[in-house]
Write a sequence for this structure.
């Protein structure tokens, strides 16, 4: 499935479906923010790793295409985008095949229209890498840059809108242009 086919449909669906879902129906713990919060760390982990109270929410997609919606507070876009840049760099340098597969289908878009005064980022994953949790951003970064995770977390943890997270599992029904 090509992204150019999915993106317009997904973005329209996102706006229609996600408003209620993202605006307050789901309030994940700070650790559950996509591309922003670390997964729960075992007690034996080095002190440099952030240790949130709860494990990251699951974004292991069941469909062939996944969409994550992330609301970022106005004025915090640069912090979030620096996190995405570090995630991209980490996935590129990571030698694990499952990380290469995640990166291959993962694109991040910034909406030109505000959502409740915040900035909406739309992560479209096509194809999904089976069995991978796309909300474990700090964990993914720490696999390549363990010394930088704590500082990065400190700079980005307050960028997220509480309850500003949504997830969609998409399965192709029809490619109208084919």
């Amino acid at each position: 499935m090509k992204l150019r086919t999915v993106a317009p449909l997904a973005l329209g669906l996102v706006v229609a479906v996600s408003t209620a879902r993202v605006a307050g129906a789901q309030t994940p713990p700070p650790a559950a923010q996509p591309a922003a919060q670390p997964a729960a760390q075992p007690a034996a982990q080095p002190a440099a790793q952030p240790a949130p109270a709860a494990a990251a929410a699951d974004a292991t997609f069941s469909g062939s295409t996944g969409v994550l919606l992330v609301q970022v507070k106005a004025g915090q876009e640069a912090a979030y985008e620096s996190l995405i840049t570090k995630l991209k760099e980490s996935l590129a340098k990571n030698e694990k095949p499952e990380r290469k597969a995640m990166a291959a289908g993962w694109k991040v878009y910034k909406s030109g229209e505000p959502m409740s005064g915040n900035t909406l980022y739309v992560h479209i994953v096509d194809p999904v890498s089976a069995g991978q949790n796309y909300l474990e951003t700090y964990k993914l970064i720490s696999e390549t840059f363990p010394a930088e995770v704590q500082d990065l977390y400190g700079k980005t943890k307050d960028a997220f809108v509480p309850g500003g997270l949504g997830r969609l599992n998409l399965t192709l029904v029809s490619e109208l242009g084919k």
Observations:
- The chain has a mean pLDDT of 76.
